[in-house]
Amino acid sequence: MTVVSTAALDPIDEFTAIAVRTAEVTASRDGKLAAASAALCDVAQRLLASNRHTASWLSQFTSFDIGGADAAARFRKLRDEFNTAKAGPELHRMKFRCRDLGAIFDREIKPELDRIFPGDLAAQQEIEQVFDRLPGADDDMVDFIHSQLVQVIDRYVADVLPPLQDGRPNVAERRRLAFDRDTAPLMERLIHLGGALSDLVLAFADEAGIDVWDEDGT
User: Fold this and answer.
1) 202 half-sphere exposure, CB direction, 13 A CA radius
2) Is 99 inside any structural domain?
3) % pLDDT > 90, the chain
4) Is residue 217 one of the residues assigned to a domain?
5) Is 218 part of a structural domain of the chain?
6) How confident is the model at residue 76 (pLDDT cuts 50, 70, 90)?
7) In the chain, how many domains are there?
8) Is 213 domain-assigned?
9) CA–CA separation, 173 vs 164, rounded Å?
10) Phi, psi of 117 (to 5 degrees)
């Protein structure tokens, strides 16, 4: 039971790389690029929310406490919550809407590229290429969530629940540990992305002079 690939997350890594360079530039402009900074903050927040929901579900299963007489009941409760989540809006929160990010770029960021990177055509082209790839990542993200998260967790549940219900906690714990080991590369990547995106949200929010939590709680 191994996570085969995290390649669907590559466009987010590409965004964070160019966004860090962009943040360094906009920070030196004394608020003159506030609108573009606000838009980049919006993009980073959307990516961060998706990353957070994905990491949260994975963490709840990898860190599940096998001990105690109520372990089977708690595990069934977690399974039921996940089954409800993956069939409803929670699943969509794990899939950032790639085309929405492209629209934000076209509307708010692209017109400012000459001001963000004056005379640096290579940098302008790089950020444009990153956002060109993001809208095309929708299918990859859908496949990633289903094949590398939902199906992996479903198989884990099927492996762990029977020994828990049969009073074989050692078998269940061995399988939990194997799951933790096999999904560690994905968790590590999600944690790394979460930290990078959080830094960007803070940087762009400061440059735009906006709150990181608005009155609608988004």
Assistant:
1) 6
2) yes
3) 54
4) no
5) no
6) very high
7) 1
8) no
9) 9
10) -120, 70
